[in-house]
Amino acid sequence: MKLRRIRPASLLPAALLAAFSLALASAVPAMAQDTDEVPYWASLTTDKANMRVGPGGSYQIVWVYQRKGLPLKVVRRLSGWRLVEDPDGTRGWLVSRFLSRERSAIVTGDDNVMMRARPDEGSQLLWQVEPGVTGWLGDCAQGWCRFAVGEREGPLREGWVPQDRLWGPGEP
C-alpha cells in the first residue's frame, strides 16, 4: 500500500474554509445581542464621546459629550452606530461601544431636588441635588425613583427623588 503525503499547500483551502466558518459562527452571537427594540434607554460609558451628524467616522462632529453616565434615548440602530437623543432633545449618532444599557437619569428643573430616605415627601432629607446632576437609576414606583449619585466603584449618595424631576425613567 502506497502512502500519500499531504502537502501543506493542499491544506490551505480546507484551513481557509474552517477559519471562515469559525468567524461566521462567532459573529452570529454578537449580532444576536444587537436585537434591542428601539427606542430604549442607554447611558454613556466613557468620559468623552463624539456625536456625529451621520452613522460613520467621516461624518461631522456636532457635539462632544464629556459626562460618563449621561442618560441617552436610543431611537435608531444602524450597524455599530446608534441615533440617540440627549436630555436637551439634540439628536445625533454615537458609536454603540460608548453606550451601556445600565440605566441613568439626570436631574431636571431650575432648583435643587430633595433626595429623601424613603419615597415620601415627609421622609428624612438626605441630600439636595442640583439640576444637571447625573446618577444611577434604580426602581421607580408611585412617582418616586431610587437615585444614586457618584461613581459605581466609589461611595454613592443614594435616596429617593420625585420621578417628575428626572429625565431618564419611564418608557423612552
TrEMBL record:
Gene3D superfamilies associated with the record: SH3 Domains
Annotated signal sequence range: 1-32
Protein name per Swiss-Prot or TrEMBL: SH3b domain-containing protein
Keyword vocabulary terms for this entry: Signal
Keyword Signal assigned: yes
Source organism, top-level taxon: Bacteria
Annotated Pfam families: SH3_4
Lineage: Bacteria, Pseudomonadati, Pseudomonadota, Alphaproteobacteria, Sphingomonadales
InterPro entries per record: DUF1058
